[in-house]
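Reminder to self: tokens first, then the designed residues, so the page reads top to bottom the way the pipeline ran.
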């Protein structure tokens, strides 16, 4: 499984780190063979919403070669969803099997057209006994 972690200025690092920590254990524990991941962005260095700077190894790669695309959230997604170059880049992941987001990362998946005709899951209120 080849995974692309999409990083961008203003993202919420916790959205990224939580998923990254959990999903990379698939490879570390050997639950699945040939697990790899790349940090992908529209530039070689990004700064999250708190000032953390992250070096990115893959700038504007073709995302079609990945099995999983991950997009974190962050306040900047509200404007980034109107960035035509960024959204066109995300659209290169059209054939990617798994498209995953946390929080407002879904705005970017939606802007790329990946949520068209998708229903929001029904969430039940907690059971109180």
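Designed residues (129 positions):
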């Amino acid at each position: 499984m080849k995974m692309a972690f999409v990083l961008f200025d203003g993202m919420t690092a916790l959205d990224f780190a939580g998923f990254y920590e959990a999903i990379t254990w698939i490879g570390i524990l050997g639950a699945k063979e040939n697990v790899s991941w790349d940090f992908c962005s529209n530039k070689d260095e990004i700064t999250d919403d708190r000032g953390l700077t992250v070096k990115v190894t893959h700038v504007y790669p073709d995302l079609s070669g990945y099995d999983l695309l991950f997009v974190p959230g962050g306040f900047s997604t509200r404007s980034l969803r109107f960035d035509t170059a960024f959204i066109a880049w995300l659209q290169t992941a059209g054939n990617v099997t798994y498209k995953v987001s946390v929080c407002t990362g879904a705005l970017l998946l939606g802007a790329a057209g990946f949520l068209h005709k998708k229903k929001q899951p029904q969430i039940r209120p907690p059971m109180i006994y």
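Strands lie at 2-6, 36-41, 45-47, 53-55, 58-59, 68-71, 98-101.
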